[in-house]
Amino acid sequence: MAWRQILFSNRRLISAPSNLSVPTGFASFSSKSSPYIVKVGIPEFLNGVGKGVETHVEKLESEIGDFSKLLVTRTLKLKKLGIPCKHRKLILKYTHKYRLGLWRPRAEPVKA
Predict the structure, then answer these.
(1) DSSP3 helix / strand / coil % (the chain, rounded to 5)
(2) By the 8 A CB rule, do 70 and 84 touch?
(3) Pair 11, 71: CB distance under 8 Å
(4) Number of domains in the chain
(5) Residue 37: CB partners within 8 Å, gap ≥ 6?
(6) Of the candidates 69, 46, 41, the residue with the CA atom closest to the CA atom of residue 57
(7) Please, which domain of life does this record's source organism belong to (predicted)?
(8) Domain contains 65
């Protein structure tokens, strides 16, 4: 029923004179996220995750080096670096969310 209403309303809009400004009724959505204000590196990312993961900053910076490489790092590489299971899970969870644009670290760290 809803599809019929959408199709019929679109036919009326198409047959309307072009000199009238008639809204189409469809919202424009964008899949691109807004650009980040703060440059995110490995230390900012791990501090944003929190929960003890920030203790591995030096190890990850020396072995992985770049934040873009951290985003595609797999669990076996993190395991070889000696990162505990719970921290590996958190790092992988938040890198996935970051890649999808669902999460980003705060500009200022939250004070406890």
Answers:
(1) 55, 0, 45
(2) no
(3) no
(4) 1
(5) 107
(6) 46
(7) Eukaryota
(8) yes
